[in-house]
Amino acid sequence: MQSIKRMGILYGRLGLSTDPELIERRGAGVRAAAEALQEEDIIGILKAAYGLGTEDGAFAFLSHFSSVDPTFDVRPSDREAALLAASVVDYVIEDEAEDSAKLALAMVTGSCTGVRSPAGHVELIGIAEKALAFHQGNANTPPEDREYNKQPNSLVNAISAVGGHSHPHFQTAAPIVTSALQELGKYAEENALEAARSDNVVLAYVRRLEQEVRTYWWVAGGWSIDADMLFSRFHSDEAALRAGKELADKNHVALGLFAAPALISMLVERGRENELAKVSLREAAVRPSREWRRQNFGASSSGPLAQLLPITTALGYAAESDDAADWEPRFKRLTGVDPSELFDPIKLGVQLYRECLTMRALA
After folding, report:
1. Packed helices 327-335 and 310-320: angle between N→C axes, nearest 10 degrees
2. Coil, strand, or helix at residue 165?
3. Assign residue 112 a region: left if phi > 0, alpha if psi is -120 to 50, beta otherwise?
4. Interval 172-186: pLDDT, tens
5. Are strands 279-280 and 229-230 parallel, antiparallel or unpaired?
6. What 3-state class would DSSP assign to 223?
7. What is the pTM of this model?
Protein backbone atom coordinates (compact mmCIF):
# COMPACT_ATOMS: atom_id res chain seq x y z
CA MET A 1 0.00 0.00 0.00
CA GLN A 2 1.05 3.60 -0.58
CA SER A 3 1.07 4.33 3.16
CA ILE A 4 3.88 1.78 3.68
CA LYS A 5 5.87 3.29 0.79
CA ARG A 6 5.41 6.75 2.29
CA MET A 7 6.63 5.45 5.65
CA GLY A 8 9.90 4.26 4.07
CA ILE A 9 10.46 7.69 2.51
CA LEU A 10 9.69 9.44 5.80
CA TYR A 11 12.26 7.30 7.61
CA GLY A 12 14.89 8.68 5.25
CA ARG A 13 13.74 12.26 5.72
CA LEU A 14 14.05 11.95 9.49
CA GLY A 15 17.53 10.47 9.18
CA LEU A 16 16.41 7.07 10.46
CA SER A 17 17.59 3.75 9.08
CA THR A 18 16.05 2.85 5.72
CA ASP A 19 17.37 -0.69 5.66
CA PRO A 20 14.85 -2.67 3.52
CA GLU A 21 14.52 -5.43 6.12
CA LEU A 22 13.83 -2.90 8.87
CA ILE A 23 11.20 -1.09 6.76
CA GLU A 24 9.58 -4.44 5.96
CA ARG A 25 9.36 -5.29 9.66
CA ARG A 26 7.97 -1.85 10.48
CA GLY A 27 5.45 -2.25 7.66
CA ALA A 28 4.25 -5.52 9.18
CA GLY A 29 3.88 -3.75 12.51
CA VAL A 30 1.89 -0.92 10.92
CA ARG A 31 -0.50 -3.44 9.35
CA ALA A 32 -0.90 -5.32 12.64
CA ALA A 33 -1.56 -2.12 14.61
CA ALA A 34 -3.99 -0.81 11.96
CA GLU A 35 -6.00 -4.03 11.88
CA ALA A 36 -6.25 -4.04 15.68
CA LEU A 37 -7.25 -0.35 15.97
CA GLN A 38 -10.61 0.17 17.70
CA GLU A 39 -12.68 3.33 18.05
CA GLU A 40 -11.56 3.75 21.65
CA ASP A 41 -7.92 3.81 20.45
CA ILE A 42 -8.37 6.77 18.08
CA ILE A 43 -7.82 9.51 20.67
CA GLY A 44 -4.60 7.96 21.94
CA ILE A 45 -3.02 7.28 18.56
CA LEU A 46 -3.84 10.80 17.33
CA LYS A 47 -2.14 12.28 20.39
CA ALA A 48 0.88 10.12 19.62
CA ALA A 49 0.89 11.17 15.96
CA TYR A 50 0.75 14.85 16.87
CA GLY A 51 3.44 14.47 19.55
CA LEU A 52 1.08 15.64 22.29
CA GLY A 53 2.33 13.38 25.07
CA THR A 54 4.07 10.15 25.89
CA GLU A 55 1.51 8.64 28.26
CA ASP A 56 1.11 4.88 27.99
CA GLY A 57 -2.39 5.05 26.51
CA ALA A 58 -1.23 7.09 23.53
CA PHE A 59 1.42 4.55 22.59
CA ALA A 60 -0.39 1.32 23.40
CA PHE A 61 -0.37 0.57 19.66
CA LEU A 62 3.38 -0.11 19.84
CA SER A 63 2.67 -3.49 21.44
CA HIS A 64 1.42 -4.71 18.04
CA PHE A 65 4.85 -4.00 16.55
CA SER A 66 6.45 -6.16 19.22
CA SER A 67 4.06 -9.00 18.42
CA VAL A 68 5.35 -9.26 14.82
CA ASP A 69 8.96 -8.20 15.45
CA PRO A 70 10.71 -9.58 18.56
CA THR A 71 13.61 -7.13 18.01
CA PHE A 72 11.34 -4.05 18.18
CA ASP A 73 12.74 -1.60 20.74
CA VAL A 74 11.13 1.79 19.96
CA ARG A 75 10.11 3.77 23.06
CA PRO A 76 7.30 6.34 23.31
CA SER A 77 9.82 9.16 23.71
CA ASP A 78 11.61 8.29 20.43
CA ARG A 79 10.91 10.35 17.29
CA GLU A 80 10.25 7.10 15.49
CA ALA A 81 7.26 6.36 17.75
CA ALA A 82 5.34 9.45 16.57
CA LEU A 83 6.17 8.60 12.95
CA LEU A 84 4.85 5.06 13.42
CA ALA A 85 1.64 6.43 14.94
CA ALA A 86 1.15 8.68 11.92
CA SER A 87 1.88 5.74 9.60
CA VAL A 88 -0.78 3.61 11.31
CA VAL A 89 -3.30 6.43 10.88
CA ASP A 90 -2.25 6.77 7.22
CA TYR A 91 -2.75 3.02 6.68
CA VAL A 92 -6.21 2.96 8.29
CA ILE A 93 -7.39 5.96 6.26
CA GLU A 94 -6.05 4.53 2.99
CA ASP A 95 -7.47 1.07 3.71
CA GLU A 96 -10.93 2.60 4.33
CA ALA A 97 -11.31 0.44 7.42
CA GLU A 98 -14.35 0.64 9.68
CA ASP A 99 -13.15 3.72 11.59
CA SER A 100 -11.28 5.40 8.73
CA ALA A 101 -13.90 8.14 8.25
CA LYS A 102 -13.90 9.12 11.93
CA LEU A 103 -10.12 8.96 11.96
CA ALA A 104 -9.89 11.26 8.93
CA LEU A 105 -12.26 13.76 10.58
CA ALA A 106 -10.32 13.70 13.85
CA MET A 107 -6.95 14.01 12.06
CA VAL A 108 -8.09 17.05 10.06
CA THR A 109 -9.60 18.58 13.22
CA GLY A 110 -6.42 17.99 15.21
CA SER A 111 -4.38 20.03 12.73
CA CYS A 112 -6.28 23.18 13.77
CA THR A 113 -6.38 24.66 10.24
CA GLY A 114 -2.78 23.63 9.62
CA VAL A 115 -1.27 25.14 12.77
CA ARG A 116 -0.18 21.66 13.88
CA SER A 117 1.06 18.75 11.80
CA PRO A 118 1.76 15.09 12.62
CA ALA A 119 5.34 14.56 13.72
CA GLY A 120 7.41 13.70 10.66
CA HIS A 121 4.43 13.19 8.32
CA VAL A 122 3.26 16.57 6.99
CA GLU A 123 1.51 14.94 4.00
CA LEU A 124 -0.94 13.13 6.28
CA ILE A 125 -3.21 16.17 6.71
CA GLY A 126 -3.75 16.40 2.96
CA ILE A 127 -4.44 12.67 2.78
CA ALA A 128 -6.98 12.95 5.62
CA GLU A 129 -8.67 15.98 4.01
CA LYS A 130 -9.16 14.10 0.73
CA ALA A 131 -10.54 11.08 2.58
CA LEU A 132 -12.90 13.26 4.63
CA ALA A 133 -14.19 15.00 1.49
CA PHE A 134 -14.78 11.58 -0.11
CA HIS A 135 -16.75 10.26 2.87
CA GLN A 136 -18.75 13.50 3.16
CA GLY A 137 -19.69 13.24 -0.52
CA ASN A 138 -21.00 9.70 0.00
CA ALA A 139 -22.91 10.47 3.19
CA ASN A 140 -26.26 11.15 1.50
CA THR A 141 -26.32 9.17 -1.73
CA PRO A 142 -29.76 8.65 -3.35
CA PRO A 143 -31.45 5.27 -2.75
CA GLU A 144 -30.88 2.62 -5.39
CA ASP A 145 -33.70 1.34 -7.59
CA ARG A 146 -35.50 -1.58 -6.00
CA GLU A 147 -35.63 -4.82 -7.97
CA TYR A 148 -38.76 -6.97 -8.29
CA ASN A 149 -38.69 -10.16 -6.21
CA LYS A 150 -39.72 -12.99 -8.49
CA GLN A 151 -41.71 -15.93 -7.18
CA PRO A 152 -39.31 -18.61 -5.91
CA ASN A 153 -39.40 -22.06 -7.50
CA SER A 154 -40.68 -23.56 -4.25
CA LEU A 155 -43.88 -21.45 -4.51
CA VAL A 156 -44.35 -22.13 -8.25
CA ASN A 157 -43.95 -25.88 -7.70
CA ALA A 158 -46.30 -25.91 -4.69
CA ILE A 159 -49.07 -24.12 -6.60
CA SER A 160 -48.58 -26.42 -9.61
CA ALA A 161 -48.97 -29.43 -7.32
CA VAL A 162 -52.36 -28.15 -6.16
CA GLY A 163 -53.62 -27.79 -9.72
CA GLY A 164 -52.32 -31.17 -10.75
CA HIS A 165 -53.98 -33.08 -7.90
CA SER A 166 -57.21 -34.85 -8.93
CA HIS A 167 -58.05 -37.03 -5.88
CA PRO A 168 -61.71 -36.48 -4.79
CA HIS A 169 -61.05 -36.55 -1.04
CA PHE A 170 -59.90 -33.30 0.68
CA GLN A 171 -57.87 -35.17 3.30
CA THR A 172 -55.49 -36.27 0.58
CA ALA A 173 -55.28 -32.80 -0.98
CA ALA A 174 -54.93 -30.91 2.32
CA PRO A 175 -51.13 -31.33 2.75
CA ILE A 176 -50.52 -30.15 -0.78
CA VAL A 177 -52.77 -27.09 -0.34
CA THR A 178 -51.24 -26.33 3.06
CA SER A 179 -47.74 -26.45 1.59
CA ALA A 180 -48.73 -24.06 -1.20
CA LEU A 181 -50.31 -21.63 1.25
CA GLN A 182 -47.21 -21.76 3.49
CA GLU A 183 -44.94 -20.98 0.57
CA LEU A 184 -47.28 -18.17 -0.48
CA GLY A 185 -47.22 -16.77 3.06
CA LYS A 186 -43.39 -16.83 3.13
CA TYR A 187 -43.25 -15.05 -0.20
CA ALA A 188 -45.71 -12.37 0.94
CA GLU A 189 -43.86 -11.82 4.22
CA GLU A 190 -40.46 -11.55 2.51
CA ASN A 191 -41.87 -8.98 0.12
CA ALA A 192 -43.43 -7.02 2.98
CA LEU A 193 -40.10 -6.98 4.84
CA GLU A 194 -38.22 -5.92 1.72
CA ALA A 195 -40.75 -3.16 1.09
CA ALA A 196 -40.37 -1.92 4.67
CA ARG A 197 -36.58 -1.88 4.36
CA SER A 198 -36.83 -0.02 1.07
CA ASP A 199 -39.29 2.48 2.50
CA ASN A 200 -37.05 3.09 5.51
CA VAL A 201 -34.09 3.84 3.25
CA VAL A 202 -36.19 6.34 1.29
CA LEU A 203 -37.56 7.89 4.49
CA ALA A 204 -34.05 8.26 5.95
CA TYR A 205 -32.93 9.94 2.73
CA VAL A 206 -35.90 12.30 2.78
CA ARG A 207 -35.29 13.18 6.44
CA ARG A 208 -31.64 14.02 5.67
CA LEU A 209 -32.73 16.19 2.74
CA GLU A 210 -35.30 17.93 4.93
CA GLN A 211 -32.62 18.59 7.53
CA GLU A 212 -30.35 20.03 4.85
CA VAL A 213 -33.12 22.27 3.52
CA ARG A 214 -33.88 23.51 7.03
CA THR A 215 -30.15 24.16 7.52
CA TYR A 216 -29.95 26.20 4.31
CA TRP A 217 -33.02 28.23 5.30
CA TRP A 218 -31.37 28.93 8.66
CA VAL A 219 -28.24 30.11 6.85
CA ALA A 220 -30.34 32.27 4.54
CA GLY A 221 -31.97 33.89 7.58
CA GLY A 222 -28.63 34.56 9.26
CA TRP A 223 -30.17 34.33 12.73
CA SER A 224 -28.26 32.98 15.74
CA ILE A 225 -30.50 30.58 17.63
CA ASP A 226 -28.36 30.62 20.79
CA ALA A 227 -28.17 34.41 21.04
CA ASP A 228 -31.52 35.22 19.39
CA MET A 229 -30.01 37.88 17.15
CA LEU A 230 -28.45 38.33 13.72
CA PHE A 231 -24.94 36.97 13.19
CA SER A 232 -24.06 40.26 11.48
CA ARG A 233 -24.33 42.06 14.84
CA PHE A 234 -21.45 40.08 16.33
CA HIS A 235 -17.77 40.78 15.86
CA SER A 236 -16.64 38.59 12.94
CA ASP A 237 -14.68 36.10 15.07
CA GLU A 238 -17.55 35.60 17.53
CA ALA A 239 -19.99 35.26 14.66
CA ALA A 240 -17.77 32.55 13.15
CA LEU A 241 -17.47 30.65 16.42
CA ARG A 242 -21.19 30.76 17.06
CA ALA A 243 -21.94 29.81 13.45
CA GLY A 244 -19.64 26.77 13.66
CA LYS A 245 -21.19 25.56 16.90
CA GLU A 246 -24.79 26.15 15.79
CA LEU A 247 -24.25 24.53 12.38
CA ALA A 248 -23.04 21.38 14.17
CA ASP A 249 -26.20 21.48 16.32
CA LYS A 250 -28.47 22.14 13.36
CA ASN A 251 -27.32 19.35 11.05
CA HIS A 252 -26.49 15.89 12.38
CA VAL A 253 -24.50 14.44 9.47
CA ALA A 254 -21.80 12.51 11.33
CA LEU A 255 -18.82 13.67 9.25
CA GLY A 256 -20.15 17.13 8.56
CA LEU A 257 -21.34 18.93 5.46
CA PHE A 258 -18.91 19.34 2.58
CA ALA A 259 -20.36 22.84 2.10
CA ALA A 260 -19.80 23.85 5.75
CA PRO A 261 -17.05 26.41 4.97
CA ALA A 262 -19.29 28.14 2.42
CA LEU A 263 -22.28 28.12 4.79
CA ILE A 264 -20.26 29.58 7.66
CA SER A 265 -18.83 32.18 5.29
CA MET A 266 -22.35 33.22 4.27
CA LEU A 267 -23.39 33.61 7.91
CA VAL A 268 -20.32 35.61 8.92
CA GLU A 269 -19.74 37.84 5.89
CA ARG A 270 -23.32 38.91 5.21
CA GLY A 271 -23.92 42.53 6.14
CA ARG A 272 -20.24 43.43 6.54
CA GLU A 273 -18.69 45.97 4.23
CA ASN A 274 -15.03 45.55 5.19
CA GLU A 275 -12.82 42.53 4.54
CA LEU A 276 -12.56 40.23 7.53
CA ALA A 277 -9.34 40.76 9.47
CA LYS A 278 -7.41 37.94 11.09
CA VAL A 279 -7.73 37.66 14.83
CA SER A 280 -5.54 36.09 17.49
CA LEU A 281 -6.81 33.08 19.41
CA ARG A 282 -6.41 34.96 22.70
CA GLU A 283 -8.81 37.64 21.42
CA ALA A 284 -11.34 35.23 19.95
CA ALA A 285 -11.36 33.03 23.05
CA VAL A 286 -12.66 35.82 25.29
CA ARG A 287 -15.09 37.47 22.85
CA PRO A 288 -18.26 35.37 23.39
CA SER A 289 -20.07 35.55 26.73
CA ARG A 290 -18.57 33.47 29.54
CA GLU A 291 -21.90 31.82 30.20
CA TRP A 292 -22.10 30.55 26.59
CA ARG A 293 -18.49 29.33 26.69
CA ARG A 294 -18.85 27.60 30.06
CA GLN A 295 -22.11 25.93 29.10
CA ASN A 296 -20.87 24.58 25.76
CA PHE A 297 -17.13 24.04 26.23
CA GLY A 298 -16.37 23.97 29.95
CA ALA A 299 -16.60 20.19 30.39
CA SER A 300 -15.02 19.22 27.06
CA SER A 301 -12.00 21.49 27.61
CA SER A 302 -11.01 19.31 30.57
CA GLY A 303 -11.89 15.97 28.97
CA PRO A 304 -9.76 13.37 27.15
CA LEU A 305 -10.16 15.18 23.81
CA ALA A 306 -8.92 18.55 25.08
CA GLN A 307 -5.47 18.27 23.47
CA LEU A 308 -6.96 17.48 20.06
CA LEU A 309 -9.55 20.31 20.13
CA PRO A 310 -7.62 23.58 20.57
CA ILE A 311 -10.44 26.06 19.96
CA THR A 312 -12.82 24.24 22.27
CA THR A 313 -10.12 24.09 24.94
CA ALA A 314 -9.21 27.76 24.54
CA LEU A 315 -12.84 28.82 24.96
CA GLY A 316 -13.27 26.60 28.01
CA TYR A 317 -9.96 27.57 29.63
CA ALA A 318 -10.56 31.31 29.17
CA ALA A 319 -14.06 31.09 30.67
CA GLU A 320 -12.78 28.97 33.57
CA SER A 321 -10.14 31.65 34.32
CA ASP A 322 -12.70 34.48 34.10
CA ASP A 323 -10.72 35.70 31.07
CA ALA A 324 -7.57 36.38 33.08
CA ALA A 325 -4.40 35.73 31.06
CA ASP A 326 -3.27 32.81 33.24
CA TRP A 327 -5.13 30.37 30.96
CA GLU A 328 -2.73 31.02 28.09
CA PRO A 329 0.44 29.24 29.34
CA ARG A 330 -1.61 26.22 30.47
CA PHE A 331 -3.28 26.08 27.10
CA LYS A 332 0.00 26.29 25.19
CA ARG A 333 1.59 23.52 27.29
CA LEU A 334 -1.39 21.25 26.70
CA THR A 335 -2.01 21.80 22.99
CA GLY A 336 1.24 23.22 21.63
CA VAL A 337 -0.76 26.05 20.01
CA ASP A 338 0.32 29.62 20.76
CA PRO A 339 -2.61 31.84 21.86
CA SER A 340 -1.09 34.64 19.77
CA GLU A 341 -1.63 32.56 16.60
CA LEU A 342 -3.67 34.51 14.05
CA PHE A 343 -6.73 32.91 12.46
CA ASP A 344 -8.98 33.86 9.58
CA PRO A 345 -12.46 34.14 11.17
CA ILE A 346 -14.06 31.76 8.65
CA LYS A 347 -11.40 29.10 9.26
CA LEU A 348 -11.89 29.62 12.99
CA GLY A 349 -15.60 28.86 12.63
CA VAL A 350 -14.97 25.80 10.43
CA GLN A 351 -12.42 24.53 12.96
CA LEU A 352 -14.89 24.79 15.84
CA TYR A 353 -17.54 23.12 13.66
CA ARG A 354 -15.22 20.15 13.10
CA GLU A 355 -14.31 20.04 16.77
CA CYS A 356 -18.01 19.75 17.66
CA LEU A 357 -18.35 16.89 15.16
CA THR A 358 -15.25 15.17 16.55
CA MET A 359 -16.59 15.46 20.09
CA ARG A 360 -19.85 13.88 18.96
CA ALA A 361 -18.04 11.09 17.12
CA LEU A 362 -15.49 10.15 19.77
CA ALA A 363 -16.77 11.34 23.15
Report:
1. 160
2. coil
3. left
4. 666 777 777 778 878
5. unpaired
6. strand
7. 0.86
